[in-house]
Amino acid sequence: MLYTTLTDTELVELLRHQDRLAFSEIFNRHWGHLYVHALKMLKDEDEAKDIVQDVFTSLWTKSGSYQILSSLQAYLFGCVRHRVLNYLRDKNTRNTYTDLFSIFLQHQHNAVLEKIEEKELLDAINAVIESLPEKMKRVFELSRKEFLTHKEISEKLNISEKTVKRQISNALSILKTHINKPENMILVLFLSSFK
C-alpha cells in the first residue's frame, strides 16, 4: 500500500489500528505547517518544535481512543493552538510569580538593611549617651527615655530647671557632633524635639 496516496481520513482510520506507517505519513504531511503555525504564535523555534512534537506524541498514544470530528488538519491545528495558549498562560503565570517573588525578596532585603542601619544608629547613639558625663547622662535619660519634664527632673535630682535644660542642650549638641550623617540627623532632631 502506498501511504502517500491515501487521504487524511483513510490515514486516520489506519492510525486507529496503531499503523506506524500511517502515523509517519500524517507526521510528514502535517509537521511543517503545524511548526510554522506554532512558530508564528510563539516566536521561539525550540518551543514551537516541542509543542508540535507533543501534539504528534499525543496523537500516537491516543490513536485508538480519540475522535476527530473535523478534518485531520483542522484537528491538529486546534491541538497546536490549544497547547500554545496553555504554554503562554503558564509562562505568564510563572513570570508574574517570578516578578512578585523578586519584588518580595528586594523588599525583604531592604527591610533587613533598614533594620541593620537602625540598630547601628541606635547603638551609636547609645554609645554617645554612655560616654556623656554622669550627671548629663542621667538628666538626658530621664528626659528622653523616661519622658520626665524639666520640672520633674529638677525635683528628682534636686537641681534647677535651668540646669536640666542646659544639660539636655549640651547632650544634644554632643549627639549632633557624633552622629553627623544627614540621614541620622532625623533621629537626633526627633530626640531634640522633646522639651
UniProtKB/TrEMBL annotation:
GO biological process, one term: DNA-templated transcription initiation
Annotated RNA polymerase sigma factor 70 region 4 type domain residues: 123-173
Pfam families: Sigma70_r2, Sigma70_r4_2
Domain RNA polymerase sigma-70 region residue range list: 27-92
GO terms assigned for molecular function: DNA binding; sigma factor activity
Top-level taxon of the source organism: Bacteria
Record-annotated membrane-spanning stretches: none
Keywords tagged on the record: Sigma factor, Transcription, Transcription regulation
Family note: Belongs to the sigma-70 factor family. ECF subfamily.
Protein name: RNA polymerase sigma-70 factor
